[in-house]
Amino acid sequence: MEGVEWSRLDGPFEVGTTGKSKPPGRLPAGSFRVDAVVPNELYRSETKLPGARLLFEHIIEPAEEGVTITHRAILDGPLARLWVPVLRKSIERGLSPGVERLAGLAAADH
Prior knowledge:
The protein contains one helix and six strands; from the N terminus they run E-E-E-E-E-E-H. The protein is an alpha+beta fold. Strand 3 and strand 4 form a beta hairpin.
C-alpha cells in the first residue's frame, strides 16, 4: 500500500489541532500538529522527531481546469540528515497518492 495506512485529526481542521498518521510498512504511527491553514490556498502539518522537524506543506493554486496541488516535505533540525535515509522512500512513495486521495475527497465535498 502506498500513501498513508490511516490518519486522524483530534479536532477541527485548524491551526493547533493535533492528529496521528500511520505510514505503510514497519514505520510506526506518528503524531502531527496542524501548523498553518489558509482555506483553498495552503495547509501545513508538523511532526517533531528527535533532533529534527518534518513539515508537510500543501499549496493549492487555481488552474485552467480545477486546481494544482503542490506538496513538499521539509526536514530540518540538527539531526535532519540522519532522518533522511529512514524517511525518504516512504515520503516519496506516499506523498503523491495521499494528496490525490485528499483532492478526490475535497472535490466530492463540493
